[in-house]
Design goal:
single chain; about 750 residues; alpha+beta; Beta-Lactamase; six-stranded antiparallel sheet; 15 strands; about 15% strand; rod-shaped
């Protein structure tokens, strides 16, 4: 898939919109999880604290009840002693009665004969029926509402048999004949018997006929001070209505309850008090939870072991229910005074209802936030689509025109840009009518591209016109250079001819000088003939010098023309340099505008680089031409100076030749007088020879200068050829653009 500018803008806006939404949702989910965890932890703490508070309250209630009941039985025991004292006190009769004594722990029985225990003149008897009134014990029960028992010592060990009681056995009869052994089946001393045998009272829990009682024991002593029995008053714990009602009325959560279990002995794991009174007396020791674990054994064992509230959780299914197991939490607290384990239990999900409500509200809030986020994203997509069109439409509208400009068709490209601008102008009029400000960077880009195209159009036109002018100037310079080269060639030929003539004059002068020196006494006729030949040579030399002067003037005039044309070339080169600089500046502006246009300005950036490269090549070529023109001007200036110098020397030599000619005339006229004046003529000939040597040297220098001028002209013609090639290349590049 091609990522257009519109798609990039939409993706960018979507990314900017989705990131906060996603982060917010992640934060909301994290907050929901943290809130749920914190709520669960707090509710768990509160639930456990509530359960612990309940068992603490039950424990305190039991402690308070224990103290109150203990106080009650203590008062009842005092009343009982008062009744015994009023009836005449305890004493033994002379006759005995046989008892079948049953160990209340091991249930073993034994036959024993004991003196009859009397209260005053009344024997307590062996009454088992509650229909028959038994002295003292029934009186205490009717007066104080407590149970009462009288024990008689069986033997020296101190076993105590119950001879009168209001405690019933499993059959509903008076539990007489059961005895408390001084040593229990486990080998430990019975604390009650041990305290009484020591002559001390015993206050606290006592096991009797399968139940626990809060009791108060006093020893019964004979006149000799021997302990012969026990007098006890007690209250069956489970029979206390207020305590039982308070325990049963406690609720934990919605369905949680408080249950009392036995902790040790025969009552271990048995229901003592239940919330509905059912199952009391039944054993729950081997009941299992949903995982098959003995939950109560762990509860009771840990509570008895630690003596502190202990928590346990376990899965539980109500008996007879087909529902799934629910997690139950229970706290157990051992109450050693009554050998009870107080257990408060409830289902965890009941006090997690607040957590469920919070989770529901949090989930609803998260769901609403998610829907709101989707709505925001939808609105963002619509806004992104609208504004992406606003951003990309101007650029898309420019692409066709810019591509035509990049392909060289400036005219059509400018026309398309103008059409698009007219369309945008109509939209601006509508926006202005609706009072909407819609003049953003994209419209500035359209205006900038249009100005750039217009400037480029003007630049190409100007460069093309300047190229034709430069081409015309180069052609004229080339023609002038050819003419100058031909003139310099003619000058070189004339110089060579003059040089040959001067060499002949030099040779002649040397020969004449030698002849005059060697043949001083020669013939006058020979001298006259030689003089005539010298006159002819001098006349030829004079003519050659005049021709050389004319050629020199012509060369100077041609060099002046070359100098003038070179100045014009410099002016054209300066103009080309300015055009090149403007081209570079415009190409730089075009590159900047293309960079602003981004992806859609790449085609125009290529055109800008090509124009910049062409401008650089033009600048290099004009720099080379300028350098060559300067060298040519320097060479021409040097040639002009050398020609002026040479002209002066030729003029001086012409004067010298004229003088020589006059002297030769004098020689010819005065040949007869030659001998007397030979020394003077010899000197003149030496001077003539020296002058001819100087002329020869000047001509050689002039020949070298002419050769240098010729070489400079060849280099100049080569430079003009390079300039012509550069101008042609520039014209070819410009012709790519349709203006």
């Amino acid at each position: 898939m091609k990522l257009t500018l519109r798609r990039k803008v939409i993706i960018l806006v979507l990314f900017a919109a989705l990131v906060p939404v996603i982060v917010t949702q992640i934060g909301m989910l994290g907050l929901q999880a943290n809130l749920s965890a914190a709520t669960e932890a707090e509710l768990d703490t509160l639930g456990r604290d509530a359960l612990k508070q309940i068992v603490d309250d039950m424990h305190s209630l039991c402690t308070t009840s224990n103290d109150l009941i203990q106080e009650k039985v203590d008062r009842a025991l005092k009343v009982a002693w008062q009744i015994v004292g009023k009836d005449g006190g305890f004493r033994f009769a002379n006759d005995k009665a046989e008892w079948t004594a049953v160990d209340q722990f091991s249930k073993k029985s034994t036959k024993v004969e004991l003196p009859r225990l009397m209260v005053g003149d009344k024997w307590l008897g062996q009454t088992t029926s509650f229909e028959t009134k038994v002295p003292v014990v029934d009186d205490i029960k009717s007066l104080m509402g407590v149970v009462c028992s009288i024990f008689q010592r069986m033997d020296e060990k101190g076993d105590m048999v119950r001879v009168a009681t209001t405690v019933s056995n499993a059959g509903g009869a008076r539990a007489i004949g059961t005895f408390i052994p001084s040593t229990r089946p486990d080998g430990t001393r019975d604390p009650i018997v041990e305290a009484v045998l020591s002559g001390n009272p015993y206050k606290g829990m006592a096991w009797a006929a399968g139940s626990w009682f809060i009791t108060s024991y006093d020893p019964i002593v004979d006149p000799k001070g021997q302990v012969v029995g026990m007098f006890v008053v007690g209250e069956l714990i489970e029979a206390v209505p207020s305590l039982r009602k308070n325990i049963q009325s406690v609720t934990v959560g919605e369905t949680g309850v408080v249950t009392i279990f036995g902790a040790t002995g025969d009552r271990k794991g048995r229901y003592i008090i239940t919330h509905d009174g059912k199952k009391e007396g039944e054993s729950a020791w081997f009941e299992k939870d949903a995982n098959g674990g003995y939950y109560l054994q762990k509860l009771v064992t840990d509570a008895v072991k630690t003596g502190e509230p202990t928590f346990h959780t376990f899965p539980w299914i109500e008996p007879g229910s087909d529902k799934e197991a629910r997690r139950k939490i229970a706290v157990a607290y051992y109450f050693p005074d009554w050998d009870w384990v107080i257990v408060a239990s409830t289902y965890e999900d009941e006090y997690y209802e607040a957590k469920t409500t919070i989770d529901s509200v949090s989930s609803s809030f998260t769901r609403n936030m998610l829907l709101l986020a989707f709505g925001i994203v939808a609105l963002t997509v619509i806004a992104a689509w609208y504004f992406s069109n606003k951003i990309t439409d101007p650029i898309t509208g420019l692409i066709g025109g810019v591509e035509k400009i990049a392909n060289g068709d400036l005219k059509k490209g400018n026309e398309e840009i103008t059409k698009y601008e007219e369309k945008q102008t109509n939209l601006k009029i509508a926006a202005k009518f609706l009072k909407i400000e819609d003049n953003d960077e994209s419209h500035l880009l359209v205006s900038s591209v249009k100005r750039m195209a217009a400037n480029l159009f003007s630049l190409i036109s100007q460069v093309g016109s300047s190229g034709f002018q430069v081409n015309s100037s180069v052609n004229r310079i080339t023609a002038s250079a050819r003419e100058l080269e031909a003139t310099v060639a003619e000058q070189a030929a004339s110089i060579k001819e003059v040089t040959a003539t001067t060499q002949e004059i030099l040779q002649t002068s040397n020969t004449l000088l030698e002849t005059m020196e060697e043949s001083i006494g020669g013939s006058i006729a020979h001298a006259s003939k030689t003089a005539e030949e010298g006159r002819g040579d001098l006349r030829t030399l004079e003519e050659a010098i005049h021709r050389l002067i004319d050629a020199t003037k012509s060369i100077s005039a041609k060099l002046s023309v070359i100098n003038s044309r070179a100045d014009k070339i410099s002016t054209v080169v300066v103009t080309i340099n300015k055009i090149s600089d403007q081209t570079n500046l415009l190409s730089l502006n075009a590159a900047i505008e293309a960079e602003k246009a981004g992806e859609f300005g790449k085609g125009f950036s290529v055109v800008a680089r090509e124009i910049s490269r062409l401008a650089d090549q033009t600048a290099v070529a004009t720099h080379d031409i300028e350098h060559m023109v300067k060298e040519m001007l320097s060479s021409v200036s040097a040639g002009v100076m050398e020609m002026d110098k040479f002209s002066e020397e030729v003029r001086m030599d012409s004067i010298t030749v004229s003088n020589i000619s006059e002297r030769l005339n004098d020689v010819i006229n005065s040949v007869n007088e030659l001998a007397p004046h030979f020394d003077e003529m010899n000197d003149g000939m030496r001077r003539q020879t020296a002058g001819a040597g100087q002329i020869n040297e000047a001509m050689q220098q002039l020949s070298v200068a002419a050769e240098q001028t010729k070489d400079s002209l060849q280099e100049f013609r080569s430079a003009t050829g390079q300039l012509n090639n550069a101008v042609n290349a520039l014209n070819e590049e410009i012709q790519k653009f349709k203006v």
